Give the backbone structure.
Amino acid sequence: MSTLEIKDLHVSIETEQGRKPILKGVSLTINTGETHAIMGPNGSGKSTLASTIAGHPRYTVDSGSITLDGEDVLSMSVDERARAGLFLAMQYPVEVPGVTMTNFLRTAKTALDGEAPSLRHWTKDVKAAMSDLRIDADFAQRNVNEGFSGGEKKRVEILQLELFHPKFAILDETDSGLDVDALKVVSEGVNREHSKGGMGTLLITHYTRILRYIKPDFVHVFVDGHIAEQGGPELADRLEEEGYDRFTGANAAAG
Ligand code: ADP
Ligand code: MG
Ligand code: MG
């Protein structure tokens, strides 16, 4: 078993008005095999947490720690984090012009494992995973994310997840912009990877809809840069009914 541990994390960003604190003491422990959902209103810092785990240079860690099995993640480069087993699916995936999916996936897999995958198995694995995710075979020769629809980008993210076998997957609004069919396909991919054992998942979402397909063990409500409440799956049901008003202090009647 592996453990990703976030302890009293404070993160800020530089803005034109000066330094702005965003994360204000986040503590969270995820073990492999567990699925944690982070839910919260827009602007509460969910993507900041995901980007900080991934090592995005824009975010400054003022205090606190992130460790993977005791190893200091914050001192690792982005590549080192990926090799240590962290996988981040971005809310806004980037396009990589001039690089085909096939080349990108094989290059990334080689960098992650430190050796090239056996071509025979690899080609078979890629084909099978693409078929499972209902990604057309043509996509193998297309440039990464170039001209992909929102739903296609999400499927390709989960394709990477299924081929790279990370220890921890951080999925930031993987559900945004997906119709129900795509949401099911993407969720099935996450569940398949989960059932192989050993993956810990941090599922970040604004809406409860994806939690019908990916069942969280723990739910954390994120408000104003910290975890305001924690619970089991029943907390997600409650949020579906009540929204975030009781956390944000908004007038429920104003809806
Ligand atoms: P969430 O993902 O929960 O919607 P974010 O982490 O994206 O929240 O944002 C948290 C807060 O940080 C918001 O107030 C947002 O405006 C601010 N923020 C995040 N990234 C930037 C940025 N690059 N520049 C300015 N403000 C930012
Ligand atoms: Mg947002
Ligand atoms: Mg976000």
DSSP finds eight helices and twelve strands in the chain. The chain has one domain: 3-250. The pocket of magnesium ion (ligand 3) is lined by residues 46-47, 91, 172-173 (CB under 6 Å).
